[in-house]
Amino acid sequence: MHHFLSNVVCLFIPIKTLRDKVRVMIRYPQTLSYIKYVRKYAGKKGAKIKTRVGRGCRNFVVVLDDKWVFKFPLFTDGREIAYREQRILEALAPISPIKIPAMKIIHYKDIVVRKYQFAHGTLLSDVAPSVVASNRGHIARQIANMLYVVGMADPKEIRDLKDNPNDKPGYLYGWFQGDIWQNFMLDENCNITYFIDWEDTKFQSFLPAIRVATRTWEKRDYRYMGVDVMAEYGRLYLQGCKKTKK
């Protein structure tokens, strides 16, 4: 019944982000208790609460005072993905040249909730094309540097999370988040302040996600961003190979 009702209501909501939120809140009434929990967690009256839905409607996200982000799982108890992500963040955060929001695990009733430091800035996908065009090289260099540094890392603490623990990093292959077209947060000077949402990070090929990112950037008029990222990544990789040979 909840699924049918949500589909009927959402027929009249043209904005996808709002449509997803309404659909989730109708299908999963427990989301109201999640909001109530965060208000209680704040420990004060007048706390600023914002909600949204995670990618694939897998999580219900509650933002508290633009300071903390609570991610409540909808399809599972959240235990496996939370502890996996925690291990990955602890291993890669000290390595990444772009800041990764700190995460803490919270147990709420029968589910595992991920609490993150709020990442201030503007999502790359929300930056005006004209601004990206005038800062494209600067943005691309930062993205490529993170892809190279994190991708070439091989922390022993998370080697067991690879499909093959003996796999070694290489050209466009290594630890990679996957959703790179929008998850960068930028400040007013187009410096990347954070990279968010690491739950899907795997030791894998970069190519499929880079193709998606490049197509998406082009559609949004972030022209040649993919070309610039690949060019800078290639330069860094060749430079690293030369140092290794020496």
Uncertain runs with pLDDT below 50, 5 residues or more? none
> What would you report as the Rg, rounded to the nearest angstrom?
20 Å
Average pLDDT rating: 91
Q: What is the terminal separation in angstroms?
A: 67 Å
Number of helices: 8
Please write the string of helix (H) and strand (E) elements.
HHHEEEHEEEHHEEEEHH
> DSSP strand (E) fraction?
15-25%
Q: What order do the strands of the largest sheet run in, or round the barrel if closed?
A: 1-2-3-5-4
List strands and helices in order, with pairings.
Elements: H1 2-10, H2 16-27, H3 31-42, E1 49-53, E2 59-64, E3 68-73, H4 79-92, E4 103-108, E5 111-117, E6 122-123, H5 129-134, H6 136-152, E7 173-176, E8 184-186, E9 192-195, E10 202-205, H7 207-219, H8 225-245
Antiparallel strand pairs: 1-2, 2-3, 3-5, 4-5, 6-8, 7-10, 8-9
Helix pairs in contact: 1-2, 6-8
Can you tag this structure with a few keywords?
alpha+beta; 3-stranded antiparallel sheet; 42% helix
